[in-house]
Amino acid sequence: MRYHIVLNASEEDFIRHREEMQGFVEQNLQGIEEGETVFIQYNDKNQENLKEQSVTSSARILQTDYYEPQAIERGLNQILKEDDICLFSGNCEGAELAVRCGARQGGSSMQNVLGVFRENHQLYGTRMVYSNHLAGKFLLKHGPFCLSIAKGGLQSHKKSGSVKMLPPVNVASQKFLYPRGEREFQQREQKNGIDQSRFLVIGGRGLGNKDAVRNLEDCAWKIGADFGVSRPVAMNAWAPMEQMVGVSGNMCHPDLCITAGVSGAAAFYAGIEKSKCIVAVNIDEHAAIMKRADIIVVDDYKAIMNELAQLMKTRK
Amino acid sequence: MRILGCFKVVPDLEQVMEQDWKKIENNKIDVSFIKTIWNCFDESALEMMLKLSDLSEGFNVLTKLDALTIGDEVCNQYLKTLYALKFDEAVRIEPLYDVSFMPLKVAELITAYVQKKASYQAIVMGNQNAVAANGKTPILVAHKLGWRCITQVIDMEPIDETHIKVRYEQQNGSVTEMVELPCVFSIGNAPNSYLRVPTLKDRMKLGKRPIITVKEEELEIRNIEETEELVELYYVNNQRDAVEIKGNGPEEKARILFDDFLKERLEKL
Amino acid sequence: MAILGRKEIVEGLVEILGAEQVITDEQVLKESSLDRYRKFEQVHEVYTQPIPAAVVYVKSTEDVKNVLTYANEYQINVVPRTGHSAIEGGLETALKDSIVVDGSMMNKVIKVDKENMQVTCECGVPLQDLDDMLRAQGLTTGHSPQSKPLAQMGGLVATRSIGQFSTLYGGIEDMIVGLEAVFPNGKVCRIKNIPRRAAGPDIRHIVVGNEGALCYITEVTVKMFKYQPENNIFLGYKIPDMKRGFEALRAVMVEGYKPSIARLYDVQDAGMHFDWSGDNNVLIFMAEGPASVTKATAEGIDNLVKTNFPEVEPVDPMIISKWFDGLNWGAEQIAEEKEEILATNNIGITTEVSGCWDCIYDIYKTACDRIMEEVPDMTLMGGHSSHSYINGTNMYFVYYYNVVDCAPEEEINKYHDRINQIICEQVIKFGGSIVHHHGLGKARAKYVHEEYGTSFFMLDTLKKAFDPNEIMNMGTLIPVRK
């Protein structure tokens, strides 16, 4: 059994995914034989010095025309052996590739994997179920084991030292594609990703409307924090999707996280549970978040946050 | 154009009391007393289909919508609602046992049904269910049918009988594409996508049509073994200290919070 | 009608209370011009009522006295308010340049008197806080309306509120012991706390339910009870016929049982709460109190229902108890509901009425039938009975409709008022009461003559005597004379 790593080198957050992957490997795959790191790369977005970013001591480039999961799946098919473990990064694209590769080769696939380990010659993986209220341990029955890691895991900057580059695999996207229609790509406005924030203020459903969300964002800005929202806020279009924190949005691990008017659904909490310190401000002392925070303030979030902003200004 | 919407009915997990999450028996949690709801991604998917159908008239596209779910009789009331919302056929596949953690089987059942009907140009469904969160069904169904699968879809508009204009998220942006059918569309985080509510008159007029019930056996699927098996379910305690800041009014509380807890932490940032 | 302009009114208030307690922020004023009766306008942020001149936060009885005296002198309409959870228009500012007098800052619990089992608090104490605090000490007010997370003690007494456990504990009128209220002329009256007396009419009941149209409640004392939820026993049954359901409620009451909850959901309403009810109505009971009593009560009711109503199908009590635990409602649900209404144009409303056993089913049946017949775009029409008495019960109509081709400000005429009217007409026809516990407010004040009949003389006399200058929440209880 060997493990391979698949990373999309043409992706914007490539380095971060690489470091999360390095962290996952260090925590989970000690004692399992190392395979190769496969860098997906599209023609117009070539990365320099890919070699240095390899998680394993051998690496290879999977060259394609543009991002097309179907084509990548075919390319990987040429590399994976039956009892290999293949790890994909912790984003939607990684999860999709894991499922696709598993389906193509009849192997086990799982997304948002928290950990993987061997017990009595069998391989197990863990992930959250029941909207993040419970964790599940799964027996992975068939190789290749295609797993996408849970996003927001611990990152490691460790590098692999000398890396041997294997011959690249080339897949022309069109060849494997269903006819591709006329398309237009719209880049999302790149605010600094809140998943990398060290100080975060998060607004929840308790804010009640769009204006209140905007006011809290202002307030966050005044105290030097990045700003995120819970799922209901994003789904109500009170804030853009990319500010969403939780399993279906950003997984954050700030040093300090202040939640305002957040009730704390399990799927949300997973998005901040790696915070060093959580301060919860909510008028409702029975909100679920109030048991899962380090410091709680039972009061109107508006008054507390405005006062904090004042204090920051005067005591700086 | 005939479109099949696949959805799942799930317990409203936010209604489960904290202490009840600890009562795990035989790797199961008893949620039978909890009211069910539409699985949220599927609810978006169904509303998106209805909007597509509303727009179709303007494009001279004849759109027929069908709905399919796999589950017990509780699902019938949801299917009736879809009838009342002018869905054409509402189908319930009755499984031999709960299939939440059996994505391969779910995909096999859907595929078998679709192949039997042989009349769909598109299949629309949410990307995952709230209970098992496998996140596989759309991709597996497409794989089995040999169709394309587009994931993280957030919007759909009709073009003509064989094309749909789709907006989907991909790599820090969104793609708008004229997609040629057939295709499976997997719905992601689509804002403001509550399912509309049918009138009682429509419920009475349309909602009383019989639900098409298909027994699992009737689909004659091959015996499939899942590639993953849930072997243990466990509760993760993530409670923290919850030190409460007390004071006379918000000003005082904010001051204590700032002086005693935040100042030092902020200096380190 | 006010003699002063907006600016002068505000200046006068600032002089009395200081600028900090006088709010003139435009958005606050707009939101203070209505309550949840105009929910559709509210979620669309369309304001059709006169915008008040100011919202003032009073901090003491003295503040209230000074503001009322000032308003009385200059004939300015005053709308008393605490938790802002009203749903029948009671908090609408019907007249130009009104003052909304908000008592939510008067939120001190003055005395928990365990010897005499009574608790005294200011008008702005939130019921949720009070009851949570008491429960932590093994006590409870026994009062648990759905508005509990929002409502405050002054408003609860002013609207003759009732809670989910009323069949055992009664409504707020059975819980209130004594109170303090301020009248428009500045007179502060205190009614002392005693178990009972026969010294003339019970003047507490001039204040309880006055809906801010006679006086401003500043302090209340209510009873306390032992809190022993470990003894609670739930019972649930499916019953195919609604009429038989009412008969079962009656049988339990007439036989002399005192469950704390006795409820009957019709098919439509049950469908919103339960997956398992199907085409059945649902009967629910809860026995509460000392263990020996709850056991006997539950056994007795169970026996009675199963014997006399053999068609019922019992439901696992655990399902009922879990459902009841999860029956929560508050600010977050309101925010959620708002977005759903905006996205779907589907809105849900309730209207509560009461009637004796011999007419309640007719009221229920004919009102539902007429609404379905006469009002377009209905998506749900049903309801439940949740408060029963020896001589009758209430009916809580629950209805949803899609607002179709209709501006937000037209909604109230096209749908809500129309439905209200049908319900009120049917209730009056069969001899029930058009208001069980939400208050007449302004929405139903137009039916006050039909509701009161010849006794309207007494209500009218009270209004004229206590509020001769017509400054107290005009339009509530008695419509404004045009």
Write the layout of secondary structure elements.
The complex is a heterotrimer of chains A (316), B (269) and C (482).
Chain A: E1 2-8, H1 14-28, E2 33-42, E3 58-64, H2 69-77, E4 85-88, H3 92-105, E5 109-113, E6 115-119, E7 122-129, E8 134-140, E9 145-149, E10 164-165, E11 169-171, E12 183-187, E13 199-203, H4 210-222, E14 226-229, H5 231-235, E15 256-260, H6 266-269, E16 277-282, E17 295-298, H7 301-315
Parallel strand pairs in A: 1-2, 1-4, 2-3, 3-10, 3-11, 4-9, 5-9, 13-14, 13-15, 15-16, 16-17
Antiparallel strand pairs in A: 6-7, 7-8
Helix pairs in contact in A: 2-3, 4-7
Chain B: E1 2-7, E2 9-11, E3 24-25, E4 28-29, E5 36-38, H1 40-56, E6 64-70, H2 75-84, E7 89-94, H3 103-117, E8 122-126, H4 137-145, E9 148-160, E10 163-169, E11 173-180, E12 183-187, H5 200-206, E13 212-215, E14 228-235, E15 243-244, H6 249-268
Parallel strand pairs in B: 1-6, 1-8, 6-7, 7-13, 8-12, 9-12
Antiparallel strand pairs in B: 2-5, 3-4, 9-10, 10-11
Helix pairs in contact in B: 2-5, 3-4
Chain C: H1 6-17, E1 22-23, H2 26-31, H3 39-43, E2 54-57, H4 61-74, E3 78-81, E4 99-102, E5 109-113, E6 118-122, H5 127-135, E7 139-140, H6 153-158, H7 166-169, H8 172-175, E8 176-182, E9 188-191, H9 204-207, E10 216-223, E11 225-226, E12 233-239, H10 242-255, E13 261-265, H11 267-273, E14 281-287, H12 291-308, E15 313-315, H13 317-325, H14 331-344, E16 346-356, H15 360-374, E17 378-385, E18 392-402, H16 411-430, H17 448-452, H18 456-466
Helix pairs in contact in C: 1-4, 15-16
